[in-house]
Amino acid sequence: MQPFFLFLLCSCSFSLFAQDEGKDSTTAPVNDSLYQSGMNDLVQDEIPTLSLDEDRLDDAGTQAISSILTAGRDPFLTAAAFNFNIARFKFRGYDNNLSATYLNGLLMQNLDNESTPYYLWSGLNDVLRNREIYAGIRYHTFGYGNIGIVTNIDARASKQRPQTTCSYAFSNRSYTHRWMITHSTGLNAKGWAFSFSASRRWSGEGYVPGTYYDAWSAFIGVDKQFNTKQILSLTAFYTPVENGRQGASTLEMQELAGSSYYNPYWGYQQGKKRNASISKSNEPLFILNDVFSINVHTTMTTAAGYSFGKRKISGIDWYHAPDPRPDYYKYLPSYQADSAQRAQLQQLFQQDENLRQINWEELYATNQANFETVYGIDGNPSNHISGKRALYILQNRVIQTQKLFFSSQLNTKIGEHVFFTGGIQYQWQRNHYYQEIADLLGGDFYIDLNQFAEQDFPNDPNALQNDLRHPNRVVKVGDRYGYNYAITLKREAAFSSFFFPLDHVDLFVGAEVSQTSFYRTGYVQNGLFPDHSLGNSIVNLFTNYSVKAGITYKLNGRNYFYVNAAQLTRAPLFDNVYISPRSRDIVQDSVRNENIFSAEAGYVLHAPKINFRIGAYYTTIRHALNVLTFYDDDYSNFVNYALRNIDRRYQGIEMGFEIKLLPVVSLNGAASLGQYFYTGRQHATIILDNSAAILADEIVYSENYKLPVPQQAFSLGLSYRSPAYWFLSVTGNYFNDRWLDFNPVRRTYNAIEGVDPASALWGQILDQEKLPAAFTVDFFGGITFRLRTSIQENKPTYLAFLAGISNLLNNREFISGGYEQLRFDFAGHDVQKFPSKYYYAYGINFFLGLSLRF
Questions:
Q1: pLDDT in tens, 151-185
Q2: Cβ–Cβ under 8 Å, residues 94 and 148
Q3: How far apart are CA 392 and CA 706, in angstroms?
Q4: Which residues are CB-neighbours of 758 under 8 A, at least 6 positions away?
Q5: Residue 455 C-beta-side C-alpha neighbours within 13 Å
Q6: Of 51, 61, 67, 854, which has fewest CB within 10 angstroms of its CB?
Q7: How many beta carbons lie within 10 A of that of residue 739, not counting itself?
Q8: Where does the pLDDT of residue 26 fall: very low under 50, low under 70, confident under 90, or very high at 90 and above?
Q9: DSSP summary character for residue 742
């Protein structure tokens, strides 16, 4: 153990673990779960909170040793969930689509991006506490799982603790205020259980200027137990959210604004801040469950779900008018060739905040002054419209979604040492993508035309039409324009897993076969691609498999050694297959499944005063695809950058420990040492978006470039829990070996053509930017009182106060993420012409919570 402590201390990797959840056998018993509630409340709503097994082992000398599945909680996972998020840490470097979340028996991954839609149940912490979280390759009783973090949430009404909770929180983070009320009855004598929860989170302005937050959340659960063998459950979630967004920014704009939190998305309108980029989501979710106990050893679980609604993100669109973005590179001092002019402009930017933000008044004035008569409306030469033609509008990019979920699963015990889990899953999803006009910004109407096609094909009147069937269409607020298409996706899967708990060895094996399909449906006939835009495309069909196995050697009831491995294939995402689904159904060449291999091994110690795990892992992903679309200044047009043969490797060591120094004092720590990088050269096809003309095929020299996640993360912390029901903890977190996401366009032969390999410029073009190491300190504490007067007869009433302070040292130079712009100056090789953009972690921020539970 000592080398690990010395390593952490010498690395200055001080961190804090989240407060231990629930009861602990070495301290005075806790009569309420308010401690657990408080810890979870501090975690962002979209991050899964931990609900881990607290069972202690039997005597280590017994012959049949407890399985590692019930051997206790994972200290590394605790750190990853609570301490590492400030640096956008990812478990083993994996993207979210390598994890899986099950809610009431349903796999909740989106089919379009395979990520978990946490926003569907955000703000409902109180009813989501019954959850299990597993890391890596495992046997699961609730589904097949994945190779990353696998979460199982049971939010049924009968699983909620019978009580009423009222709480209020005050914070200076994304939202300022939050209230929440939850009431659950538990199962009554007639077999009914009811649960209700509601919350609201809001702020007039968040931590970042120009941002705001307004979210409502509601939950209803009803269970009916018909007999000892069957229970039927209905749960419903409704969580509409609206928030003003933050944009990444360049160092130049941050220096001009005098703040790392410069936000280019807002500007003043009539003296009030108005954000142009507003995100809205509104998708109710309904789940119906049936659990039938066939016998004492066999249970059949069936679940069905349905979700529908819209997600919108607004932004400014314009037609043959100057770029309205305040941080557009041609407006900045650095773009000016004359030094005197550059200095004068720099002074103006620093002195006048309006120059650094969106000029809403000018946009309105431009539209109101632009009186035009437009002929040929709806294709009729004599049909015309006169009025203030909007050159600037506020658009909504809309995704209207429908989702169906179904699963049926059998869990049974076959003999004394065999457990079986098997089932089927079905998912169907339709995403309808379109643009709509949110605000004409003082104009009377807008014309649905493609201005880039107009400049490329000036003699072809059909080319500039976004919909040939409705040429020169007049659109107003609420009307759809531009692109309008849908993607229909379907996934069917069947799986089976066996678990063999023997005296000193645990074994598991599992397999899954699935089929994924998707196709595009165009609702407009694009003038550039009349034969590839309207109607249904061909169906893209992919058959996939997954196999996994693992063995755990149980030396005794405290020491475990494990080795697990998985081999699987995965269908590519639709937006990496279609080159430009907004305008056409043409796909990439050489489309195929991704191939994934993953293996892990480690050691676990569970003792009365020590909880420790160390593990190593190795994962490869091959044959991935990607499509990047961006504006290319050389072509004065959008280009599609279609990438294939994207290979990645994830390897490293992770370690976590929790030590009881005293009955009331714990030392906690974690370390993640990883290498996450690209292992080969990628192939890129550059395609002009408006013609599908292939401009070039080239090699991207991406080998050994790092993935944009922390490769190293450490934590060390100390916590104290008093028998008098108060606690506090202090944590330090250290992050290193962090890299900015790189621009593949710069890592090509064309980017370095004519550059001397021995020059500094060569390295400036090709080298990947490394972000500075970062260190933070956090504090958390709370106290619980049992009130002498109870609100409800024969039930105690508790009052809890919680306080958390993150980034206690106010480290405002902590770059939490960013990216290189997808542009490059091929003519001048000026790397700073399109500089990188960054996001910064919040400085000192706090959370204060008051909770009443009875």
A1: 999 999 999 999 999 999 999 999 999 999 999 99
A2: yes
A3: 40
A4: none
A5: 8
A6: 61
A7: 18
A8: very low
A9: P
**CA atoms 173, 282, 242, 814: torsion sign:** positive
Strand-pair partners of 629: 640
Distance CA 737, CA 372 (A): 57
Residue found by looking up tokens 């401690």 in the block: 35
Q: Give the Å distances, CA to CA, from 718 to 8, 19, 56, 824.
A: 14, 10, 22, 48
The set of residues, in sequence order, having a beta carbon less than 8 Å from that of 310 and lying 6+ positions away, is 280, 281, 282, 283, 398, 399, 400, 401
Q: Are 215 and 239 in contact (CB under 8 A)?
A: yes
Sheet strands (E) in 571-636: 594-606, 610-632
Looking up tokens 């009968």, which residue turns up? 158
In 3D, which of 693, 690, 699, 734 has the Cα closest to residue 714?
Answer: 734
If you search the block for the tokens 């409502």, which residue do you land on? 216
Residues 6+ apart with CB under 8 A from 595: 569, 621, 622, 623
pLDDT at 69: 57
The residue count for the chain: 854
Please state, in angstroms and rounded to a whole number, the distance separating the CA atoms of residues 76 and 71: 15
Is it the case that residue 20 has pLDDT exceeding 70?
Answer: no
* 532, 585 contact by CB (below 8 A): yes
Structure tokens at 603: 């050691």
List phi, psi (to 5°) of 786.
-100, 115
The number of C-alpha atoms within 13 Å of 639 and in the hemisphere containing its C-beta is 21
Which residue spans within 58-111 are E strands per DSSP? Answer: 100-103, 106-107
Q: Is 617 left (phi over 0), alpha (psi -120 to 50) or beta?
A: beta
Q: What pLDDT is recorded for position 66?
A: 62
In whole angstroms, how far apart are CA 704 and each of 164, 485, 541, 677? Answer: 54, 38, 32, 6
User: What is the full DSSP assignment across 316-337?
Assistant: EEESSS----TT-GGGSGGG-S
The alpha carbon dihedral of 328, 333, 334, 340 has a sign of: positive
Beta bridge partners of 660: 666
* Cβ-proximal residues to 82 (8 Å cutoff; 6+ apart), any chain: 17, 18, 39, 42, 43, 50
pLDDT digits (tens, 9 = 90+) for 500-554: 999 999 999 999 999 999 999 999 999 999 999 999 999 999 999 999 999 999 9
Write the single-letter amino acid at 264.
P
Judged against a pLDDT cut of 80, whether residue 3 lies above it is answered with no
CA pair distance 751, 828, nearest whole angstrom: 10
Amino acid at 685: T
Closest to 735 (Cα-Cα) out of 96, 89, 18: 89
CB of 89 closer than 8 Å to CB of 83: no
Looking up tokens 């407006």 gives 331
The one-letter code for the residue type at 7 is F
- Range from 18-32, 39-53, 346-360, 455-469 that averages highest in pLDDT: 346-360
Three-class secondary structure of residue 830 per DSSP: coil
Decide: 477 and 443 in contact? Cβ < 8 Å.
no
Name the DSSP letter for residue 578. B
- Residues 475, 469: contact at Cβ < 8 Å? no
Are the CB atoms for 144 and 497 separated by under 8 Å?
Answer: yes
pLDDT: which is higher, 132 or 19: 132
Residues 234, 222 contacting (CB under 8 angstroms): yes
DSSP code for 706: B
Cα separation, 750 vs 759, in Å, equals 17
CA distances from 701 to 170, 407, 646, 648, 766 (A): 49, 44, 11, 13, 9
- 36 pLDDT more than 50: no
Sheet strands (E) in 502-636: 505-522, 535-536, 540-554, 559-570, 594-606, 610-632
- Residue 365 is given by DSSP the state H
Beta-bridged to residue 95, according to DSSP, are none
